[in-house]
Design brief:
The structure is a homodimer of 137-residue chains. With 137 residues, chain A is mostly helical. The first copy, chain A, is 66% helix and 9% strand. Chains A and B meet through helix 1, helix 5 and helix 6 of A and helix 1, helix 5 and helix 6 of B. Chain A binds a DNA duplex (30 and 30 nucleotides) through helix 2 and helix 4.
DNA sequence: ATAGTTAGTTAGCCTAACTAACTATATGTC
DNA sequence: GACATATAGTTAGTTAGGCTAACTAACTAT
């Protein structure tokens, strides 16, 4: 029976391998990783403030200000005034931002799927079950 | 039976979650992510040239030149002339670099282990087995 | 010898992270 | 109502880390 520390180790190297492979697909997105990741929070989590974005992405407020400015520059997100608080603004993805994110995400998933191609189907299925059991995804 | 595309999706979000959590530990390392990652190649893969490092890390040659300069600055790695090729130099970790990397790696693994704490022991074990079966780790 | 390739560096540009210091708005207390 | 304080966000400046282009030095093949 594998110890938790062994599993942590395996999970660590697999996570590195998987994301490194997936990230290769991001080059075609025409947008940097920080912007892409923030956009994904907007698309899947819905519109939110700069502060909320910053804490979701674990970066400082000024950093998120710039990331959002970058997204606005390329019309991938827009801001509107918050009805509740004049200091805040609400950031939301545009249709273009939504589309870009979907494309980027699919490209990533195709990459990861390719990594699984060489493994036995039932091992992959077991991995899926185990991930669901442990992480609830 | 889970389809490969579902498993890819789960693997994607788990990998993001795991590495985001692990990365929090890196702040205490006192060294940036690119340097830390290059150092780990040196420690686990053994001494190698700038070019080999660059291709292992999937960055350009000039980028790796700078990363190695950073490592040298903090005495985490040293270079010596290649005996075979006067154009090349061999980069190797110092004792300090080795120690720093071990500490950083252990801190990461402890973080990931903490993520597994809330899951059932047998589910974690199954995850370990599945990772081994699919990725050979 | 010389033409071409390879290893690495330098220069210059961008993104993305930080802290410190600022503005503007909210809020709580007297 | 006025003042102190907290909060949301921006601006300024630094550093790390990514790129391409252009270069030098050294190796290789003809």
């Amino acid at each position: 029976m594998a110890r938790a520390s062994d599993v942590a180790d395996r999970l660590h190297s697999v996570a590195i391998r998987v994301l490194r492979h997936a990230r290769e697909a991001d080059r075609e997105a025409g947008i940097g990783p920080a912007r892409l990741s923030a956009l994904s929070v907007l698309v899947y989590g819905g519109p939110c403030t700069i502060s909320e974005l910053a804490s979701a992405e674990q970066v400082s407020l000024p950093t998120m200000t710039r990331i959002v400015q970058g997204l606005e520059q390329f019309s991938l997100a827009r801001r509107k005034a918050s009805p509740a608080d004049a200091r805040s603004s609400i950031v939301a993805p545009t249709a273009k931002g939504n589309a870009l994110l979907q494309r980027a995400r699919n490209a990533r998933l195709r990459r990861i799927e390719a990594l699984l191609k060489s493994a036995k189907t039932e091992d992959v299925a077991r991995l899926g079950d185990a991930l669901a059991a442990v992480f609830g995804v």
